[in-house]
Amino acid sequence: MIIVPTLLEKSPIHGFGVFSKGFIPKGTKAWEWNEKFDIKITEEEFPTLAKSVQEELEIHMYQPEEKGYYLYETTMGKYMNHSRTPNIDFSIVSEGWTTRDIQPNEELTCDYRQFSHDFSQIAYI
User: What is the torsional sign of CA 45, 82, 122, 59?
Assistant: First the structure.
């Protein structure tokens, strides 16, 4: 879940995005896994969910390891857009750290390749 002050706005990158409410210094932990707000779904559980739920989850879920859990964030972090030059580093899947100073109203971005074992279905990566 996002742990720095943010808001959801239209994004020039894609659809909606997560934007900083204020200055965030380089090296700040901006996201962390939280069992109350982040959901693990097994590959076996996913097909048992209602089709409408599957469609909603598929938009924002990710799978860090082949045959591992699908992960779904319930907070605004699920709207963080992809960038090849992100300002949030997810090289540790359960944590996101700022790679540089982030200015007020700047969009927070991440590289989906850091936490998705298979991103071949995402054309813009």
Answer: positive
Other residues' Cβ atoms within 10 Å of the Cβ of residue 17: 21
CA distance 14 to 51: 25
Between these two residues, 124 and 60, which has the higher pLDDT value?
A: 60
Q: What is the dihedral of CA 28, 15, 121, 36, to 10 degrees?
A: 50
Per-position b or e across 94-114, b if 16+ CB within 10 A of its CB? eebbbbeebeeeebbbbbbeb
Residue 37 C-beta-side C-alpha neighbours within 13 Å:
13
Q: What is the DSSP letter of 62?
A: B
Span 73-107, pLDDT tens digits = 888 988 999 999 999 999 988 899 999 999 999 99
The neighbour count for residue 64, using CB atoms within 10 Å, is 15
